Phosphate-specific transport system accessory protein PhoU (Methylobacterium planeticum), 474 residues
Amino acid sequence: MSEHIVSSYDNDLEDLRRSISEMGGVAEKMMTDASDALVRRDTVLAQNVIVADKRLDALQREIEERAVLLIARRQPLAIDLRETVSAIRVSGDLERIGDLAKNIAKRVVAISDQAQPQKIVLGVQHMSDLVQEQLKDVLDAYGAQDTVAAHDVWERDGAIDALYNSLFRELLTYMMEDPRNISFCTHLLFCAKNVERIGDHTTNIAETIHYLATGETLTAERPKNDASNYATISPQA
Amino acid sequence: MSEHIVSSYDNDLEDLRRSISEMGGVAEKMMTDASDALVRRDTVLAQNVIVADKRLDALQREIEERAVLLIARRQPLAIDLRETVSAIRVSGDLERIGDLAKNIAKRVVAISDQAQPQKIVLGVQHMSDLVQEQLKDVLDAYGAQDTVAAHDVWERDGAIDALYNSLFRELLTYMMEDPRNISFCTHLLFCAKNVERIGDHTTNIAETIHYLATGETLTAERPKNDASNYATISPQA
């Protein structure tokens, strides 16, 4: 293989890394903004999140196309092939994270005229803060191909699920206390669920980092805490 | 290119098609079973759905790996490259459909001891019937590379969204009527949302068929009816 081909191949990989990093930045900002918009009932910020999603979708299509061409033209092997496949996977997860942030933003617009005690939102905010940290850490780990940091993110997903479960129960309780809370709390339930799913996607990215570094699929069961994800509670409880 | 290479390449593509078809069959059955389990409160059937998801996950990993190797080894061009990329995309959507069906099944287990009027479940069942039809039609369209049928599925997603919106309002009303309905109806809301999202994945597959046949991305806006997806209603309404 000539020097020239090797070097333009490296450039292709470097371009992919840059695009993933850009996508990560957009997805992180969308998530932070969606969460801030929810806490502050800021519909302008929410609209920004909705608009930003188009950029993320375009980036994902671009990354997928370039990665496929790279595989077809350069026939990468071993670590290079894994890095290209990983770029496709991670861009898919980031695109989904953007969709979920956009969904939260749309709900902010829907509930903007509802005057509800702020404390109801605080639980979602706390959970969102944790997931934002997960997302930041996993993107750093991907950039650095740091499997230890990735495994740490992977382990922490159980805590997010546990938090979601207690939030789920709390929101049901507010709904039972006062039917005027039902509509608002239902949207918050979906927001919380979206945040939890963003957490799942950070876990996917952590698994991709493991695959990228080792060539193996992480087959251990995820540290799921989702038993009470499906809890029911009664008004008398 | 020798006769031998062409023919083993065709075999590879044929294998991919067969695996996608198998995945489609498993995903369809999971969705039908999850819906039946919900209507009949059949926890045994629900457990079957949960178990079947492992098979779907394994099939997806296998298809992705084989498709990537096929691209790297055979460097397919034009339609063949698109078919291989499409196999990766469709297997991703089918895997997500399986996850959503599994999520419904888990909720069936959670609410199995709740005695609620059956009429509350009927709206979800009706919506699920429509989406099952969409899924069947889009899988047939993929097998036949039938863009007209795919476009028909794509158009019909708007009706599913509209149905979800009216169901959302209906379930909120039941919750406001009687706080004892809240826990049950919350799980049904998530089931309905999952069915709607399965509908979104059938739309994704329809778009992949368009890309496969034409090489172009369907850029028209989806016929979304999601304005009232984010509706709120008040107890006095």
